Structures
1.
Amino acid sequence: MTQKTNDNLMKFDQQHIWHPYTSMTKPLPCYHVESANGVYLTLNDGTQIIDGMSSWWASIHGYNVPALNQAMQVQASKMSHVMFGGITHTPAINLCQKLVGITPAGLECVFLSDSGSVSVEVAMKMAIQYWHHQQPTKKKFITIRNGYHGDTFGAMSVCDPDNGMHELFTGFLAPQFFINAPSVKFDEPWQNSAIQDLADTLAENHQHIAAFILEPIVQGAGGMKFYHPEFLRQAKFLCERYDVLLIADEIATGFGRTGKLFACEHAEITPDIMCLGKGITGGYMTLAATLTTRHVAETISNGPSGVLMHGPTFMGNPLACAVANASIDLLMTSDWEQQVAGIEKQMQQALLPLTEHDNVTDARVLGSIGVIETARSIDLAKAQVVFVELGVWIRPFGKLLYIMPPYIISQAELETLCGVIKQVLDADIWVK
Ligand SMILES: *Cc1c(COP(=O)(O)O)cnc(C)c1O
């Protein structure tokens, strides 16, 4: 591509195309990616950079994976899409069999949708419909602060109330119950006081609460925090005691990211409803799933409406299901547990000592997620340029510098990622 053609493309992009959370008048710098292979993104000037983000948790096997490419090609030559109303197909059946098989015991009924946010909307609808004819006062949700569940309105209503969304959409967003985020970190000694706020709020308001929704163990986009599994175990217990359904949003944590196949396994619980997305297709296509128990599914189905009130046009898209099947097969036949444990160990050694640095307030690692919390806010535009110059793709936000690389990353590549993180702490990446 000539320089001029590229300049024209980039100019159109700046003037006409929104990127996630961006302005049309002050667009952030944007990089033109031409292709991707393994853990490398290739920019259109030929530069190769190591992807530390797995395209936001999704590309667990890296890019251009032969088995996944083949699954898509084979499926495309048979049927890329067909409506799911009144029609079914093997890719969807196989996928739902696999999901029921690998998720915590008891999750048996699957609703397929197109994105994580939609799978959260579906989970919330399930909870409302579950209570509708049993106890119609149960119409609200309870959740923990610092949470993130997506960008659609139902999901937004249970995102952290102080991150800007709520203020902007006040009057339109459903008011929900918020409790303090779990105060005990993943590897700290457990303290019962950490569950008090949940216990009190449920005791007082349970007649109005349909479900407790939270991200198990890892709070992702709301702060990259890892909390104690005992919180989740006791939350499950309290939900049962107060007749509140438990929704586990495993969209970021699912498929091995935290060192367990699903983060709920850290607490050995089965939620009533589980949301999956992101890594489900190995980052190839957009797809999500909401799983629930036979009991919840039957209660909804025996209600006055008789049906679950949702049905997206691209529900169960065969191409997405086919590549999800291939991705799950690849994961389950790989030694992902060792890979993730190896990444965890290497990141512990490379990142945890950085707490000594003046610009760092905390460093933490869980599974293949490494997080540095900085003392000052990071200027994204500045930082992005520095990272690309140093050969990596890392996208910080606020005071969080974090990586969650594809599981196939080599030791040397991970060393580069961690080395660059160390290096930029002394670079000019800070908000003035
Ligand atoms: C990314 C994410 C979502 C939203 O998924 P989309 O596919 O972006 O709609 C919801 N919950 C969690 C925990 C996520 O990380």
Note: Residues 116-132 form the longest helix (17 residues).
2.
Amino acid sequence: MSLFRSKAEHKLVEKGLDPKRLPPGQYLTEKWPVLHAGTVPQTDLSTWDFKVFGEVEEPTTLTYDELKALPQTEITVDIHCVTRWSRFDTSFKGVHWRELTTLVRPKSSARFVLAHAEQGFTANVPLAALEDDEALIAWEADGAPLEPDHGWPLRLVVPSRYFWKSAKWLRGLELLSADQPGFWERYGYHNDADFWKEQRYGF
Ligand SMILES: Nc1nc2c(c(=O)[nH]1)N[C@H]1C(S)=C(S)[C@@H](COP(=O)(O)O)O[C@H]1N2
Ligand SMILES: [Mo]
């Protein structure tokens, strides 16, 4: 009988890390893998914008400079991909959802969010997942501007869910009264994506 659930956990203990940080079925990686459908989009910041729309009093469009002029926040979080890699202590800098609410004023009917990214990629989360202190709309990771591969100029970071919810190349947030499945969710990925419950595929 082993003291640890798995080899992966044993490795963490050897590194002095708390094995409880690793969700079931995940292994730790030190590098940061790149994963997405499609290609890395070319972005021209002079025409780029970011929209918050749907169930809000004031649909709002921001330029990159306007977004970066909002109060900024930093988070350090563990990220967990459904393909089983986890990366600990990735830091992000950006703007928290709460800063946008003062501009857009969500209606009381707003309960869900559909994140819209370049090339039609979408991901859905309950609004509560964005209200989480550790969620962020980010332009920096580990102290440097996001690499294009990792979503520059802007990505969503929803650390409470598998990482596919964290849309790279984010262009907008649509507030909804009823949930709508995003890109991977329509392909059979779990709608909730809670890695502690191993909600990988299916409802
Ligand atoms: N726009 C877009 N965002 C995306 C994806 C994608 O295909 N397109 N893939 C998701 C998945 S499955 C993962 S695991 C993470 C990977 O982010 P990374 O490449 O920065 O590690 O991005 C997520 N965000
Ligand atoms: Mo993923």
Note: The pocket of MTE (ligand 1) is lined by residues 32-37, 81, 117, 121, 150-151, 163-164, 166-169 (CB under 6 Å).
